[in-house]
Write a structure and sequence with these properties.
- The model has no long low-confidence stretch (mean pLDDT 87).
- The protein has twelve helices and five strands.
- Strands 1, 2, 3, 4 and 5 form a five-stranded antiparallel sheet that branches.
- The longest helix is centred in the middle third of the chain and has 34 residues, at 161-194.
- With 311 residues, the protein is α+β, with helices and mostly antiparallel strands.
- It folds into two domains: 4-152, Four Helix Bundle (Hemerythrin (Met), subunit A) (Up-down Bundle); 174-298, no CATH class.
- Helix 2 (28-50) packs across helix 5.
């Protein structure tokens, strides 16, 4: 018996393979539609892995509950769910993306790819238009999403494995080139602004820049050394808590981790957007967020009533 999560995972894999076949035959419309379905089902699979109930949607509370109840009742039997699926409202692709990132913040790295694929899929499905991207860009983004969400390896793609590896290599090369260009531009801008100044003047001006933006600091916006010019930049993201049990202890040590997704430097005007660009600049996007109380991260957490009452 196949669960809803398993059904979504298998469907995402089928459509990813179909997108590969259509890419080879240069059928843009079919490739984009298949890539869009693969992307949406892969994201929904991530959400359903936590609970299919999280897929529920609805215009009002009653509609949401009706969908949530059916998703819960048939969570482990996708075939039985299929008979009532017409009465169920579920998330859109973009909503599934938001929830998948909320569950696994590291998936922020594929956000731009997912939005690209779904925008082109929607343009084709709803308006019969090609969208703003070419087929190679759309399909490569689909591969990146499938790799991150479904853990697909080269062997999954069969005879298309070589092509897929080549496209991912091209994507990685383009990313490195884009980030290296940003870093070079940042270093050039820093030299233009401060290169002719004495060390004392430069130090004073940079200190003023760093002090002027201290009001922006928060639990999710921290100072960080700029990879281009070495001055204090701002890095931001979302926090999560990790627990570790030290040896010979029954009590966990909780550490707040900042899942960084953007860096901005006012001294050289460098901006790195997304986990991929941070990693390409050799910045680990998971940063120990010292000074933040784990209790503050938990402050907005509302436990499930049944779990709270142990029932």
């Amino acid at each position: 018996m196949e669960s809803i999560h398993e059904s979504l995972t298998n469907s995402a894999k089928r459509y990813a393979l179909l997108a590969a076949q259509e890419y080879v035959t240069e059928s843009y419309e079919a490739c984009v539609l298949a890539a869009g379905i693969a992307t949406e089902h892969a994201l929904k699979s991530v959400v359903a892995a936590e609970s299919p109930v999280f897929l529920a949607s609805g215009r009002n509370e009653a509609a949401w509950f009706s969908s949530a109840w059916r998703l819960h009742a048939y969570a482990e039997d996708a075939n039985a769910f299929d008979a009532v699926s017409g009465e169920v409202q579920t998330l859109s692709g973009n909503q599934a993306l938001a929830r998948a990132i909320a569950i696994h913040p590291t998936l922020k790295s594929i956000e731009v790819h997912a939005r690209r694929v779904m925008q082109c899929r929607n343009a084709q499905a709803h308006m019969g238009m090609r969208g703003a991207e070419n087929m190679k860009v759309v399909f490569t983004s689909c591969i990146r999403i499938a790799t991150e969400t479904l853990g697909l390896q080269s062997e999954f793609w069969g005879s298309h494995a070589g092509m897929v590896d080549s496209l991912l290599d091209d994507l990685a090369t383009e990313l490195r080139q884009r980030v290296e260009t940003k870093l070079a531009a940042g270093r050039a801008e820093f030299e233009r602004r401060f290169g002719s100044e004495s060390a004392a003047v430069r130090s004073t001006v940079i200190e003023q820049i760093e002090r002027s933006r201290e009001w922006r600091y928060s639990e999710e916006v921290r100072p960080f050394e700029c990879p281009a010019c070495g001055t204090g930049a701002l890095i931001r993201g979302t926090n999560h808590v990790e627990a570790d049990f030290p040896e010979h202890s029954d009590y966990p040590v909780e550490i707040v981790i900042l899942d960084a997704n953007r860096l901005d430097c006012e001294a050289c005007h460098l901006s790195l957007d997304g986990v991929e660009e941070l990693e390409a600049a050799e910045i680990d996007p998971e940063i120990v967020n010292e000074g933040v109380d784990p209790g503050d991260v938990y402050a907005s957490f509302e436990p499930d009533e049944d779990w709270l009452r142990d029932r």
